[in-house]
Amino acid sequence: MTAPSLLLEDVTRVHGTGETAVRALDGVSLEVMPGELVAVMGPSGSGKSTLLNLAGGLDLATSGRVVIEGEDLSTLGAKGIAQLRRRRVGFVFQDYNLIPSLTAAENVGLPLELDGVRASQARRQARQTLDLMGLRDLSDRFPDQMSGGQQQRVAIARALVGSRRLVLADEPTGALDSHTGEDVLRVLRERCDEGVAGLLVTHEARHAAWADRVVFLRDGVVVDSTGRASSPEDLLATGSSR
Amino acid sequence: MSVKQGLMALLADGPMYGAQLRAEFEDRTGGTWPLNVGQVYTTLARLERDGLVEPTGEADGEGRISYRLTQAGTEEVGTWWTTPVDRDSTPRDELTIKLALAVTVPGVDVQAVAQTQRTATLKHLHDLTRLKQQVMRKQREAEGAPSGPADAAKHDEGNHDLAWLLVLENLIFTAEAEVRWLDHVETRLHRESLRPFRRSGAHTTALPDDAGDHAGTRTEARR
Ligand SMILES: Nc1ncnc2c1ncn2[C@@H]1O[C@H](COP(=O)(O)OP(=O)(O)O)[C@@H](O)[C@H]1O
Ligand SMILES: [Mg+2]
């Protein structure tokens, strides 16, 4: 039996204490298998970013367990989590988080370099990934020389570069037009088809539809979730004779 | 839309007989709106009566008659392309009506109705997206393939894929709009439920137990 790439067990995150405490997540359980892309939808303030931050080890649960490829994050310590995030987890932030003094290719290659990959090799892999995102010609630009949508795609390339096995993306298509947004989803989908596990926060149903299933959050609770993917036979029966 | 306009637009591409028209129509729209041959022939007969199409000659060996546009027909097709589609008449929509009635009939759990539908529509959206992915993959493969002679046929096929893609995307945007609207409905209902003079009973569950086959669709108590 394959272990899930990401497992959340009864996870609760409370911000603050006493009167002002906010239960951002309340007893959420979730499993993402290798090759699976799961979308998270829900109104703003429902806990989507909190969920993603916990899954990526950027934040710690108040109670419950977060397990990545069999490793319980609460047992890893800061160093262990940092290493896990460099090697195995790609994170796309809502606000890109690119380093202004580095070019696109340097930004994308950074996690590899930090992990000991030679600079030239890291740069080459970075360019390949940028190419996938349709940014080949912008490799040597700095973030402030790019549009919001282009920076967003650089951020996504940085999350995909190398052999990351879990990709977490928070509204990665927010700043993109309809076609570019779709290109991003297609690339993410292809990565997952190759065995990467993905968790994607989005408020656009059209983008969530690229995922194998959709989980709905409301007030920190999973209120609904679509089933597993349909079989190919079901697909062919959908409004088409082809 | 009437079948008439569709058939005439196809005939602008060259003469065709009934079965051909039907096949072309379905091929270009991915079989989303199937036509039956009977419908095609009655329409052709009416168009011929109105002087918009005419037979190109006698029936062939298999009894098939090809039709082409007359001058008047060509003009009518031109008018069709340049006239906007009428959006003033609102087609009856079962879901809209269902929700409108759900908020007025006592004892219906409107939230559950909206949520069940959203899950179903999302699954549909997912399936449409998978189909779209297949069409796009096919297109990319065709782009990569070296071109040679016999490309007119390939070109046609490419155009038909593009047509099918546009139809699919229309279905996708429509489904997305429905999901957005349902999200909006949920939020609206939630707000209304917080207002003082709400009619009572609007949140009591009275749906049949088999509210669709989507496991996990129905929520537990929404507090
Ligand atoms: N650092 C924080 N301190 C206090 N409250 C927070 C913090 N981060 C998030 N929250 C609260 O937690 C809830 C969930 O937030 P978030 O996960 O960002 O929602 P979403 O991404 O779905 O919009 C919100 O009510 C938000 O105000
Ligand atoms: Mg957020």
From TrEMBL, chain A:
GO cellular component: membrane protein complex; plasma membrane
Residues annotated as domain ABC transporter: 6-241
Keyword Phosphoprotein included in the entry's annotation: no
SMART domains (alphabetical): AAA (SM00382)
Official protein name in the record: Macrolide ABC transporter ATP-binding protein
GO molecular function: ATP binding; ATP hydrolysis activity; transmembrane transporter activity
Keyword entries, A-Z: ATP-binding, Nucleotide-binding, Transport
Transmembrane residue ranges: none
InterPro entries noted in UniProt: AAA+_ATPase, ABC_transporter-like_ATP-bd, ABC_transporter-like_CS, ABC_transpr_LolD-like, MacB-like_ATP-bd, P-loop_NTPase
Provenance organism: Knoellia locipacati
Automatic annotation (TrEMBL), chain B:
High-level lineage: Bacteria, Bacillati, Actinomycetota, Actinomycetes, Micrococcales
Ranges for region Disordered: 134-156, 200-223
Chain ranges of the Transcription regulator PadR N-terminal domain: 7-77
UniProt biased composition (Basic and acidic residues): 211-223
Transcription regulator PadR C-terminal domain sequence ranges: 92-189
Protein name: Transcriptional regulator
Domain of life of the source: Bacteria
